[in-house]
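Following up on my earlier thread - several people asked me to post the actual chain instead of describing it. Fair enough. Here it is, all 109 residues.
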Amino acid sequence: MLSFNTIFHFFNFIEGRGYSDAISYVIMTKNIKVCLENEKKIRKFVQMNTSSSCQVDVRSGQSYIDGKSIIGLLSLNLLKPLYVSVIGDSNKITDLIDSYEEYDLVTTA
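Reply from S.P.:
Thanks for posting it. Predicted structure:
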């Protein structure tokens, strides 16, 4: 079942690009966990998200924030792993998650 966020971002995508362009893209959601235990990792995470065209939603407990907002991230409990949903074109999601892995942000804990 698709989440509300996935459907919402899909319709925003169609609105921004037009229906015919939307058909040529594969929009998907990928969920991962990340650890942002120091300032360098927090900055890199926000920088990667900001330069990506993907929508990045971050959840900690009951709080959801935009993964492109450093102020939003700092309002979360960074002592625990964060749940991240990356929404967008499948190739761009793969590129972004590969970048997370390159900087050792992805966790299995």
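The chain has one domain: 26-107. That should answer part of your original question.
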